[in-house]
Design brief:
Elements: E1 6-12, H1 20-33, E2 38-44, H2 56-59, E3 63-64, E4 70-71, H3 74-81, E5 91-93, H4 94-107, H5 117-130, E6 138-143, H6 153-166, E7 171-178, E8 181-182, E9 187-188, H7 191-202, E10 209-214, H8 220-230, E11 237-241, H9 249-255, H10 258-265, H11 276-285, E12 290-298, H12 308-320, E13 323-331, H13 340-343, E14 349-352, H14 361-373, E15 378-381, H15 383-395, E16 403-404, E17 414-417, E18 421-424, E19 429-432, E20 444-452, H16 457-462, E21 466-473, E22 476-477, H17 482-487, E23 490-495, E24 502-507, E25 513-516, H18 531-542
Parallel strand pairs: 1-6, 1-7, 2-5, 2-6, 7-10, 10-11, 12-13, 12-14, 14-15, 15-25, 16-17
Antiparallel strand pairs: 3-4, 8-9, 17-22, 18-19, 20-21, 20-23, 23-24, 24-25
This protein binds glutamine.
Amino acid sequence: MSFPTKFIFVTGGVLSSLGKGLASAAIGALLESRGLTITLQKLDPYINVDPGTMNPFQHGEVFVTDDGAETDLDLGHYERFTHAKLGRKNNFTTGKIYHSVITKERRGDYLGGTVQVIPHITDEIKQSILSVAKDVDVVIIEIGGTIGDIESLPFQEAIRQFKADVGKENVIYVHLTLVPYLPAAGELKTKPTQHSVKELRSIGIQPDILLCRTDRFLSEEIKSKIALFCNLGVDQVITAKDVDLIYEVPLIFHQQHLDDKITKLLNIWTRAPRLEDWEHFVEKSKNLKDSVTIAIVGKYIHLQESYKSLNEALYHGGIANDCEVKLDFVDSETIDEANCSQRLKKANGVLVPGGFGSRGIEGKINAIRYSREEKLPFFGICLGMQMAVVEYARHVAGMEGAHSTEFDQDTPFPVIYLMKEWFDYKSQTIQQRDVTSDKGGTMRLGAYPCILNEDSVAFKAYKAPEISERHRHRYEFNNELKDKLEQAGLITSGISPDGQLVEIVEVADHPWFLGCQFHPEFKSRPMNPHPLFVSFIRAALDCK
Ligand code: GLN
């Protein structure tokens, strides 16, 4: 295929949380199904340089890429729906853009000039977009926030200018809005959409495709009305209907020929789409034979967005076993030794996910002890693994008062601690940190290799001697206490190639007890479920 790189900008109107990220990911999936190579990028209007320092309660999950970028959770959707390899350049925030412009200003790059939003900030935004446009047919760029927000104006202005820069035949604008159904009036309301498009046009952007989020398919009459008021053809108005399953979105769009329309508007010729994998996955998801209940013991349980990738990975692991995974979110703060069995009695497996801060820590340790002693399948991720080590140290290895120094600086047995100095194979440098180090971007982040012990649950799941998984944590397993823990029976089944970092621990004589220092959930895909999740759900089913 030979045509210049094409650009699709996805904006949103009326209100947030309409599913812009999913819509962008689904468009990516459809274009890939036609043989195109694509990438995606998210432009976020907030001032944080990245979401790494933001509270999951406010912002949802922080998604980590192989190159160690801490990014918006929409990048998780992009990776799950497409084959795009994403990294640092696929997520820019206002903070990152300004940081770069101010660094250049201090260096003297604009010497003599007055540095302004237009052109300096808008140019920097356009450069960021172009930075991901190499070697792909189409780039899909999602603009965070809602049209009309003051803080996203520079992004909106930049994408308006972009069309003139790269040629109008190479750019389309997709706008996602809401068409609510009002039960009292018994009808769908188009006014919010009309206003949102008016707002978009007032900043100089005429949408090419409107995706209308509704609870039912739009009639031709409604579509015509929207088209008329928004200066569009009827065939440019698409229903983005609510679905039970997010993996249906590409199929719903395809039924309405969205991929065909986009390729025509961008003047690209492609093969016919192949969506058998998606159809098969959705079909399978709707005909599950069995079910298991997994208790997720954590503190962000009231906001499911905080565990987005985790929920998806469990779902994928379930589908691979023809099994529905019911999630029982248990607030770790409410678990004590006395009520633990009561709180977890419905569960066929227990998962303690990653987290920060001491709140609910003892509840997590209680849940882990219960799972170990009652031989309930247990999966500990990052903080969950660290607490599994603490639990084992305290109750099996006789290390009374053992803890992570994140929560107890004076513990007599710091089984998890802050490694003051370690060799980072990626940067080939010695890294140093202590409690006073900067918090932003200073954790062990991104993909690291790990060698598996062949006689382990991990090896049986992965069926490979070496793996690579993504990390996001500050604290590590303390090697000085490793011998003592191993003598007490703890198995360290995954270790970094230099032997310095313990990445996986297991417990013998247990159907499935595994803790990993990394976050496997970031690499699970619907059509390529993560081996640890497949194996964990299998164990939960077997123990039912
Ligand atoms: N708080 C722990 C650490 O920083 C675990 C982090 C996590 O679970 N992502 O090491």
